[in-house]
From TrEMBL:
One GO-annotated biological process of the protein: proteolysis
Protein name: OLC1v1017909C1
Record's keyword annotation contains rRNA-binding: no
GO molecular function: deubiquitinase activity
Sorted UniProt keywords: Hydrolase, Protease
Keyword Hydrolase: yes
Domain annotation PPPDE: ranges: 41-170
Family: Belongs to the DeSI family.
């Protein structure tokens, strides 16, 4: 996989910016044509382990997970950085750097073709700046829930973001859970 940015991922850049100077960005690779008919393009949620501890608690419906949405042969995800620019990026499906792939879950289908999905993702990326990422209230799994629902009308399985949901139940839990997540992810 040859990508033009560090850590093997590329940030979302609107098509209208192609050919213009865009600091801190890498442009998309060419869109792959759909091999499915209208309304038949599958949308998958790719789930990754953030910690080896998941192997011990996954059976109980717990774990710390990263996720991305795969459609038309491209995986889109959301991550943190220090800039007020999009934190949405693309990677090769099931190969997000820094995470161990766990499973791919079929969510549903979309009627959007590859170009429409790309334009849709560019619009959505404006709502997901890297400096707004938060482990409990706005993480990669929240992004995937939002994107999957808008593309297919279905949300991601609840277990994927259960730990963040538990952390959002009270202010005290948020502080303790954030500390735990930082410790686990370090």
């Amino acid at each position: 996989m040859t990508l033009g940015s560090k850590k093997g991922w590329k940030s979302i850049v609107p098509l209208r910016l192609k050919g213009k100077s865009t600091p801190r960005f890498c442009l998309f690779s060419k869109v792959k044509p759909a091999s499915y008919g209208p309304g038949k393009t599958p949308v998958y949620l790719n789930v990754y382990d953030l910690t080896p501890m998941n192997g011990y608690v996954y059976w109980a419906g717990l774990g710390v997970f990263h996720s991305g949405v795969e459609v038309h042969g491209v995986e889109y995800a959301f991550g943190a950085h220090d800039y007020p620019t999009s934190g949405v990026f693309e990677v090769e499906p099931r190969q997000c750097p820094g995470f161990k792939f766990r499973k791919s879950i079929f969510i549903g289908t979309t009627s959007l073709d590859a170009t429409q999905v790309r334009e849709f993702m560019e619009r959505q990326a404006a709502s997901y700046n890297g400096d707004t990422y938060h482990l409990i209230v706005k993480n990669c799994n929240h992004f995937c829930t939002d994107i999957c629902y808008k593309l297919t009308g279905r949300k991601i399985p609840k277990w994927v973001n259960r730990l963040a949901k538990l952390g959002s139940l009270s202010g005290t839990n948020i502080i303790l859970l954030e500390d735990l997540l930082v410790l686990i992810c370090s």
